[in-house]
Amino acid sequence: MARPNWDGIAEATMLLQEVLEEEGLTAAVESRVRRVLGILSLKVDGAMPREEFRELRKKLGRTQEDLASDLGKRTRTISRYESGDVPIPAAVAQALRDLVGDQ
């Protein structure tokens, strides 16, 4: 089976986010959906866990707003990366690593 590309993972992530917003989910279902979201985030080539993303941002001494400006992203996007709402794209992960390396 071919590995899904970023677009497929992004679409699947958004669909799972919609499921999490539905009312009436049991705790067990919500837990499984969140677990799947975590797995998807690690399947993107070059992706990093949200915890690492947050640690690197703090190592730089940058706020979410500052980092958004540095990476050409919106503050809300940085927040969603750190909360695990969406996977961190490989290009963003590498750009953050490069910023840390330049320090």
Automatic annotation (TrEMBL):
It comes from Niveispirillum lacus. InterPro entries: Cro/C1-type_HTH, Lambda_DNA-bd_dom_sf. One of its GO terms (molecular function) is DNA binding. This is HTH cro/C1-type domain-containing protein. Gene3D superfamilies: lambda repressor-like DNA-binding domains. Residues 53-96 form the HTH cro/C1-type domain. Transmembrane segments: none annotated. It comes from the Bacteria. Coiled coil: none annotated.
